[in-house]
UniProtKB/TrEMBL annotation:
<feature type="domain" description="ABC transporter">
    <location>
        <begin position="6"/>
        <end position="236"/>
    </location>
</feature>
<keyword id="KW-0813">Transport</keyword>
<dbReference type="GO" id="GO:0016887">
    <property type="term" value="F:ATP hydrolysis activity"/>
</dbReference>
<dbReference type="InterPro" id="IPR003439">
    <property type="entry name" value="ABC_transporter-like_ATP-bd"/>
</dbReference>
<keyword id="KW-0472">Membrane</keyword>
<keyword id="KW-0046">Antibiotic resistance</keyword>
<dbReference type="Pfam" id="PF00005">
    <property type="entry name" value="ABC_tran"/>
</dbReference>
<dbReference type="InterPro" id="IPR003593">
    <property type="entry name" value="AAA+_ATPase"/>
</dbReference>
<dbReference type="GO" id="GO:0008559">
    <property type="term" value="F:ABC-type xenobiotic transporter activity"/>
</dbReference>
<dbReference type="InterPro" id="IPR050763">
    <property type="entry name" value="ABC_transporter_ATP-binding"/>
</dbReference>
<dbReference type="InterPro" id="IPR017871">
    <property type="entry name" value="ABC_transporter-like_CS"/>
</dbReference>
<keyword id="KW-1003">Cell membrane</keyword>
<dbReference type="GO" id="GO:0046677">
    <property type="term" value="P:response to antibiotic"/>
</dbReference>
<keyword id="KW-0547">Nucleotide-binding</keyword>
<keyword id="KW-0067">ATP-binding</keyword>
<protein>
    <recommendedName>
        <fullName>ABC-type xenobiotic transporter</fullName>
        <ecNumber>7.6.2.2</ecNumber>
    </recommendedName>
</protein>
<dbReference type="InterPro" id="IPR027417">
    <property type="entry name" value="P-loop_NTPase"/>
</dbReference>
Amino acid sequence: MTEPAISARGLRKSYGDKTVLDGVDLAVPAGTVFSLLGPNGAGKTTVVKILSTLLGADAGTVRVGGHDLATDPQAIRAAIGVTGQFSAVDGLITGEENMQLMADLHHLPRRKGREVTAELLERFDLVEAAKKPASTYSGGMKRRLDIAMTLVGGPRIIFLDEPTTGLDPRSRHGMWEIIRELVSGGVTVFLTTQYLEEADQLAHRIAVLHGGRIAAEGTAEKLKRLVPGGHIRLRFAHPQAYEAAASALRAAGLPRTRLPARGSSPDEEALTLRIPSDGTQRELRALLDWLDAEGIEADEFTVHTPDLDDVFFALTAEGAVPHQPEEADR
Ligand SMILES: Nc1ncnc2c1ncn2[C@@H]1O[C@H](COP(=O)(O)OP(=O)(O)OP(=O)(O)O)[C@@H](O)[C@H]1O
Protein backbone atom coordinates (compact mmCIF):
# COMPACT_ATOMS: atom_id res chain seq x y z
CA MET A 1 0.00 0.00 0.00
CA THR A 2 1.37 3.43 -0.84
CA GLU A 3 1.97 5.81 2.03
CA PRO A 4 -0.70 8.47 2.55
CA ALA A 5 0.34 12.00 1.55
CA ILE A 6 -0.58 13.19 5.03
CA SER A 7 -0.99 11.10 8.16
CA ALA A 8 -1.31 11.89 11.82
CA ARG A 9 -1.71 9.66 14.86
CA GLY A 10 -2.64 10.64 18.38
CA LEU A 11 -2.30 14.40 17.88
CA ARG A 12 -2.74 16.33 21.10
CA LYS A 13 -2.65 20.03 21.75
CA SER A 14 -3.68 22.14 24.71
CA TYR A 15 -3.54 25.86 25.28
CA GLY A 16 -3.07 26.26 29.03
CA ASP A 17 -5.63 23.96 30.60
CA LYS A 18 -7.84 24.00 27.50
CA THR A 19 -7.50 20.79 25.50
CA VAL A 20 -8.12 21.54 21.83
CA LEU A 21 -6.94 18.27 20.24
CA ASP A 22 -7.39 15.13 22.27
CA GLY A 23 -6.01 12.37 20.09
CA VAL A 24 -6.63 13.10 16.42
CA ASP A 25 -5.87 10.39 13.84
CA LEU A 26 -6.15 10.97 10.13
CA ALA A 27 -4.78 9.75 6.80
CA VAL A 28 -5.07 11.46 3.44
CA PRO A 29 -4.31 9.42 0.29
CA ALA A 30 -2.20 11.21 -2.33
CA GLY A 31 -4.10 13.02 -5.07
CA THR A 32 -7.32 13.38 -3.08
CA VAL A 33 -9.19 16.16 -1.32
CA PHE A 34 -9.63 15.68 2.40
CA SER A 35 -11.96 18.02 4.18
CA LEU A 36 -11.84 18.74 7.88
CA LEU A 37 -15.16 20.05 9.14
CA GLY A 38 -16.00 21.37 12.53
CA PRO A 39 -17.83 24.13 14.34
CA ASN A 40 -16.07 27.39 15.19
CA GLY A 41 -13.25 26.81 17.62
CA ALA A 42 -13.17 23.02 17.08
CA GLY A 43 -9.45 23.15 16.31
CA LYS A 44 -9.34 22.95 12.50
CA THR A 45 -6.78 25.71 12.14
CA THR A 46 -4.76 24.14 14.95
CA VAL A 47 -4.62 20.86 12.98
CA VAL A 48 -3.56 22.69 9.81
CA LYS A 49 -0.87 24.60 11.67
CA ILE A 50 0.55 21.44 13.23
CA LEU A 51 0.51 19.45 9.96
CA SER A 52 2.15 22.34 8.12
CA THR A 53 4.92 22.71 10.74
CA LEU A 54 3.77 26.13 11.94
CA LEU A 55 2.88 24.93 15.42
CA GLY A 56 4.24 22.18 17.65
CA ALA A 57 1.92 19.44 18.96
CA ASP A 58 2.07 18.25 22.57
CA ALA A 59 1.97 14.62 21.42
CA GLY A 60 1.44 12.50 18.34
CA THR A 61 3.21 11.61 15.14
CA VAL A 62 2.86 13.29 11.76
CA ARG A 63 4.13 12.33 8.31
CA VAL A 64 3.66 14.61 5.31
CA GLY A 65 4.93 13.86 1.81
CA GLY A 66 6.92 10.91 3.15
CA HIS A 67 8.76 13.00 5.76
CA ASP A 68 8.56 12.75 9.50
CA LEU A 69 7.57 15.99 11.21
CA ALA A 70 9.70 15.28 14.27
CA THR A 71 12.93 14.66 12.36
CA ASP A 72 12.55 16.51 9.07
CA PRO A 73 10.20 19.53 9.27
CA GLN A 74 12.32 21.34 6.69
CA ALA A 75 11.56 18.70 4.05
CA ILE A 76 7.86 18.99 4.83
CA ARG A 77 8.02 22.77 4.44
CA ALA A 78 9.62 22.33 1.04
CA ALA A 79 6.93 19.89 -0.11
CA ILE A 80 3.80 21.82 0.88
CA GLY A 81 1.92 25.02 0.22
CA VAL A 82 -0.30 26.67 2.83
CA THR A 83 -3.02 29.24 2.35
CA GLY A 84 -4.33 30.44 5.68
CA GLN A 85 -7.40 32.36 6.69
CA PHE A 86 -5.34 35.52 6.64
CA SER A 87 -4.04 36.42 3.27
CA ALA A 88 -0.32 36.54 2.49
CA VAL A 89 -1.03 39.11 -0.24
CA ASP A 90 0.74 42.45 0.13
CA GLY A 91 -1.75 45.10 -0.92
CA LEU A 92 0.85 47.80 -1.60
CA ILE A 93 2.43 46.02 -4.55
CA THR A 94 0.86 44.59 -7.70
CA GLY A 95 -0.38 41.03 -8.13
CA GLU A 96 2.53 40.33 -10.44
CA GLU A 97 5.04 41.68 -7.91
CA ASN A 98 3.50 39.53 -5.17
CA MET A 99 4.02 36.51 -7.39
CA GLN A 100 7.60 37.46 -8.22
CA LEU A 101 8.33 37.90 -4.55
CA MET A 102 7.21 34.31 -3.98
CA ALA A 103 9.36 33.15 -6.91
CA ASP A 104 12.36 34.86 -5.27
CA LEU A 105 11.54 33.27 -1.91
CA HIS A 106 11.61 29.89 -3.67
CA HIS A 107 14.97 30.81 -5.25
CA LEU A 108 13.62 30.28 -8.77
CA PRO A 109 15.98 31.61 -11.43
CA ARG A 110 14.69 34.98 -12.73
CA ARG A 111 13.50 33.65 -16.06
CA LYS A 112 11.81 30.61 -14.57
CA GLY A 113 10.18 32.90 -11.98
CA ARG A 114 8.74 35.09 -14.72
CA GLU A 115 7.45 32.06 -16.61
CA VAL A 116 5.75 30.55 -13.57
CA THR A 117 4.26 33.93 -12.61
CA ALA A 118 2.84 34.49 -16.09
CA GLU A 119 1.43 30.98 -16.28
CA LEU A 120 -0.26 31.19 -12.86
CA LEU A 121 -1.66 34.69 -13.44
CA GLU A 122 -3.20 33.37 -16.64
CA ARG A 123 -4.57 30.25 -14.98
CA PHE A 124 -6.14 32.24 -12.14
CA ASP A 125 -7.65 34.81 -14.46
CA LEU A 126 -5.55 37.66 -13.08
CA VAL A 127 -3.75 38.82 -16.22
CA GLU A 128 -5.77 42.02 -16.57
CA ALA A 129 -5.29 42.95 -12.92
CA ALA A 130 -1.65 41.85 -12.77
CA LYS A 131 -0.20 45.36 -12.89
CA LYS A 132 -2.63 46.90 -10.40
CA PRO A 133 -1.95 47.14 -6.66
CA ALA A 134 -3.43 44.10 -4.91
CA SER A 135 -5.29 46.42 -2.50
CA THR A 136 -7.65 47.24 -5.40
CA TYR A 137 -8.61 43.55 -5.88
CA SER A 138 -11.98 42.11 -4.87
CA GLY A 139 -12.10 39.46 -2.13
CA GLY A 140 -12.31 36.68 -4.72
CA MET A 141 -9.35 38.05 -6.71
CA LYS A 142 -7.24 38.34 -3.55
CA ARG A 143 -8.07 34.76 -2.63
CA ARG A 144 -7.12 33.58 -6.14
CA LEU A 145 -3.86 35.51 -5.96
CA ASP A 146 -3.19 33.99 -2.54
CA ILE A 147 -3.55 30.46 -3.91
CA ALA A 148 -1.55 31.31 -7.02
CA MET A 149 1.25 32.49 -4.71
CA THR A 150 1.04 29.22 -2.78
CA LEU A 151 1.54 27.32 -6.05
CA VAL A 152 4.68 29.15 -7.19
CA GLY A 153 6.94 26.54 -5.62
CA GLY A 154 5.00 23.70 -7.28
CA PRO A 155 3.88 21.98 -4.05
CA ARG A 156 2.30 18.53 -4.38
CA ILE A 157 0.43 18.91 -1.10
CA ILE A 158 -1.52 22.01 -0.22
CA PHE A 159 -3.39 23.10 2.87
CA LEU A 160 -6.30 25.43 2.30
CA ASP A 161 -7.74 26.84 5.50
CA GLU A 162 -11.28 28.05 4.78
CA PRO A 163 -10.43 29.15 1.22
CA THR A 164 -13.92 30.38 0.37
CA THR A 165 -15.05 32.04 3.58
CA GLY A 166 -16.60 35.39 2.73
CA LEU A 167 -16.68 34.79 -1.04
CA ASP A 168 -19.85 35.28 -3.05
CA PRO A 169 -21.38 32.18 -4.70
CA ARG A 170 -19.77 32.84 -8.10
CA SER A 171 -16.29 33.28 -6.63
CA ARG A 172 -16.85 30.22 -4.46
CA HIS A 173 -17.71 28.10 -7.50
CA GLY A 174 -14.64 29.52 -9.26
CA MET A 175 -12.50 28.42 -6.32
CA TRP A 176 -14.01 24.93 -6.44
CA GLU A 177 -13.04 24.68 -10.10
CA ILE A 178 -9.48 25.68 -9.22
CA ILE A 179 -9.32 23.04 -6.48
CA ARG A 180 -10.70 20.37 -8.84
CA GLU A 181 -8.08 21.26 -11.43
CA LEU A 182 -5.31 21.02 -8.86
CA VAL A 183 -6.47 17.57 -7.82
CA SER A 184 -6.80 16.36 -11.39
CA GLY A 185 -3.14 17.35 -11.73
CA GLY A 186 -2.33 14.98 -8.86
CA VAL A 187 -2.07 17.52 -6.02
CA THR A 188 -3.30 16.46 -2.56
CA VAL A 189 -5.56 19.04 -0.93
CA PHE A 190 -6.23 19.34 2.78
CA LEU A 191 -9.20 21.64 3.10
CA THR A 192 -10.90 23.08 6.13
CA THR A 193 -14.30 24.59 5.65
CA GLN A 194 -17.42 25.60 7.47
CA TYR A 195 -19.49 25.03 4.36
CA LEU A 196 -20.88 21.55 4.27
CA GLU A 197 -21.81 21.91 0.64
CA GLU A 198 -18.19 22.68 -0.14
CA ALA A 199 -17.01 19.47 1.50
CA ASP A 200 -19.80 17.56 -0.22
CA GLN A 201 -18.79 18.99 -3.62
CA LEU A 202 -15.05 18.58 -3.36
CA ALA A 203 -13.90 16.09 -0.80
CA HIS A 204 -13.15 12.44 -1.40
CA ARG A 205 -13.18 12.01 2.35
CA ILE A 206 -14.55 14.18 5.13
CA ALA A 207 -13.70 14.19 8.82
CA VAL A 208 -15.80 15.95 11.43
CA LEU A 209 -13.74 17.36 14.29
CA HIS A 210 -15.64 17.64 17.55
CA GLY A 211 -14.64 17.59 21.18
CA GLY A 212 -10.95 17.33 20.27
CA ARG A 213 -11.43 14.14 18.27
CA ILE A 214 -12.53 12.96 14.86
CA ALA A 215 -16.22 12.29 15.52
CA ALA A 216 -16.77 10.64 12.13
CA GLU A 217 -14.77 10.09 8.98
CA GLY A 218 -15.61 8.81 5.52
CA THR A 219 -17.07 9.69 2.17
CA ALA A 220 -19.94 12.19 2.11
CA GLU A 221 -22.28 9.31 1.25
CA LYS A 222 -21.11 7.26 4.18
CA LEU A 223 -21.48 10.15 6.61
CA LYS A 224 -25.00 10.82 5.39
CA ARG A 225 -25.89 7.21 6.13
CA LEU A 226 -24.84 7.71 9.76
CA VAL A 227 -27.79 9.91 10.52
CA PRO A 228 -31.45 9.20 10.08
CA GLY A 229 -33.37 12.03 8.53
CA GLY A 230 -34.61 10.82 5.14
CA HIS A 231 -38.30 11.56 4.98
CA ILE A 232 -41.16 12.64 2.81
CA ARG A 233 -42.99 15.80 3.73
CA LEU A 234 -46.64 16.23 2.95
CA ARG A 235 -47.91 19.74 3.34
CA PHE A 236 -51.57 20.62 3.38
CA ALA A 237 -53.10 24.01 2.82
CA HIS A 238 -56.25 23.25 4.83
CA PRO A 239 -56.53 21.91 8.36
CA GLN A 240 -59.35 19.52 7.39
CA ALA A 241 -57.30 17.86 4.64
CA TYR A 242 -54.38 17.67 7.01
CA GLU A 243 -56.46 16.09 9.80
CA ALA A 244 -57.94 13.54 7.40
CA ALA A 245 -54.47 12.56 6.19
CA ALA A 246 -53.14 12.38 9.76
CA SER A 247 -55.93 10.02 10.84
CA ALA A 248 -55.49 7.83 7.77
CA LEU A 249 -51.78 7.57 8.53
CA ARG A 250 -52.50 6.84 12.16
CA ALA A 251 -54.91 4.09 11.16
CA ALA A 252 -52.36 2.68 8.74
CA GLY A 253 -49.84 2.66 11.60
CA LEU A 254 -46.85 3.68 9.50
CA PRO A 255 -43.86 3.22 11.80
CA ARG A 256 -41.91 6.24 13.06
CA THR A 257 -44.21 8.69 11.27
CA ARG A 258 -44.12 12.00 13.10
CA LEU A 259 -47.75 12.78 13.76
CA PRO A 260 -49.19 15.57 15.84
CA ALA A 261 -51.07 14.80 19.03
CA ARG A 262 -54.76 14.20 18.36
CA GLY A 263 -56.77 17.37 18.78
CA SER A 264 -53.76 19.70 18.80
CA SER A 265 -54.40 22.92 16.95
CA PRO A 266 -52.55 22.83 13.66
CA ASP A 267 -50.23 25.75 13.08
CA GLU A 268 -48.25 26.47 9.92
CA GLU A 269 -45.67 23.72 10.52
CA ALA A 270 -48.23 21.31 11.94
CA LEU A 271 -49.94 21.19 8.55
CA THR A 272 -46.94 19.16 7.49
CA LEU A 273 -46.68 15.41 7.98
CA ARG A 274 -43.30 13.70 7.88
CA ILE A 275 -43.08 10.09 6.82
CA PRO A 276 -39.70 8.39 7.21
CA SER A 277 -38.47 7.09 3.89
CA ASP A 278 -35.26 6.10 2.18
CA GLY A 279 -36.46 8.05 -0.85
CA THR A 280 -36.21 5.07 -3.21
CA GLN A 281 -38.48 4.87 -6.23
CA ARG A 282 -40.13 1.76 -4.83
CA GLU A 283 -41.04 3.46 -1.54
CA LEU A 284 -42.23 6.61 -3.24
CA ARG A 285 -44.47 4.66 -5.60
CA ALA A 286 -45.97 2.66 -2.73
CA LEU A 287 -46.65 5.83 -0.78
CA LEU A 288 -48.21 7.63 -3.74
CA ASP A 289 -50.41 4.60 -4.46
CA TRP A 290 -51.51 4.53 -0.85
CA LEU A 291 -52.28 8.26 -0.82
CA ASP A 292 -54.35 7.85 -3.99
CA ALA A 293 -56.24 4.90 -2.55
CA GLU A 294 -57.03 6.89 0.59
CA GLY A 295 -58.08 9.90 -1.46
CA ILE A 296 -55.41 12.08 0.17
CA GLU A 297 -54.09 14.93 -1.89
CA ALA A 298 -51.26 16.96 -0.39
CA ASP A 299 -50.61 20.49 -1.62
CA GLU A 300 -46.89 19.87 -1.46
CA PHE A 301 -44.99 16.59 -1.65
CA THR A 302 -41.24 16.79 -1.06
CA VAL A 303 -38.54 14.19 -0.59
CA HIS A 304 -35.88 15.09 1.95
CA THR A 305 -32.71 13.00 1.93
CA PRO A 306 -30.25 13.52 4.77
CA ASP A 307 -27.56 15.99 3.82
CA LEU A 308 -24.29 16.92 5.45
CA ASP A 309 -26.12 19.55 7.49
CA ASP A 310 -28.03 16.75 9.22
CA VAL A 311 -24.75 14.90 9.82
CA PHE A 312 -23.03 17.99 11.12
CA PHE A 313 -25.81 18.89 13.53
CA ALA A 314 -26.17 15.32 14.74
CA LEU A 315 -22.45 14.87 15.36
CA THR A 316 -21.60 18.27 16.78
CA ALA A 317 -24.61 18.73 19.04
CA GLU A 318 -23.92 19.32 22.75
CA GLY A 319 -23.37 15.93 24.30
CA ALA A 320 -23.18 14.09 20.96
CA VAL A 321 -21.31 10.83 21.38
CA PRO A 322 -18.40 10.66 18.95
CA HIS A 323 -18.61 7.76 16.50
CA GLN A 324 -15.62 5.56 16.32
CA PRO A 325 -14.09 6.11 12.89
CA GLU A 326 -14.40 2.93 10.86
CA GLU A 327 -11.94 1.36 8.50
CA ALA A 328 -11.44 3.17 5.21
CA ASP A 329 -14.20 2.23 2.79
CA ARG A 330 -12.44 3.30 -0.38
N1 LIG B 1 -2.61 30.81 20.58
C1 LIG B 1 -3.68 30.41 21.25
N2 LIG B 1 -3.77 30.56 22.60
C2 LIG B 1 -4.85 30.15 23.28
N3 LIG B 1 -5.92 29.56 22.71
C3 LIG B 1 -5.91 29.38 21.39
C4 LIG B 1 -4.79 29.79 20.58
N4 LIG B 1 -5.07 29.48 19.28
C5 LIG B 1 -6.28 28.90 19.29
N5 LIG B 1 -6.79 28.83 20.53
C6 LIG B 1 -8.09 28.23 20.91
O1 LIG B 1 -8.12 26.90 20.44
C7 LIG B 1 -9.40 26.56 19.96
C8 LIG B 1 -9.30 26.04 18.53
O2 LIG B 1 -8.96 27.12 17.66
P1 LIG B 1 -8.85 26.94 16.08
O3 LIG B 1 -8.51 28.27 15.52
O4 LIG B 1 -7.94 25.81 15.78
O5 LIG B 1 -10.33 26.52 15.72
P2 LIG B 1 -11.04 26.44 14.31
O6 LIG B 1 -11.78 25.14 14.27
O7 LIG B 1 -10.07 26.70 13.21
O8 LIG B 1 -12.09 27.61 14.43
P3 LIG B 1 -12.70 28.63 13.29
O9 LIG B 1 -13.66 27.81 12.50
O10 LIG B 1 -13.41 29.62 14.16
O11 LIG B 1 -11.57 29.18 12.53
C9 LIG B 1 -10.26 27.79 20.09
O12 LIG B 1 -11.01 27.68 21.28
C10 LIG B 1 -9.25 28.92 20.23
O13 LIG B 1 -9.77 29.95 21.01
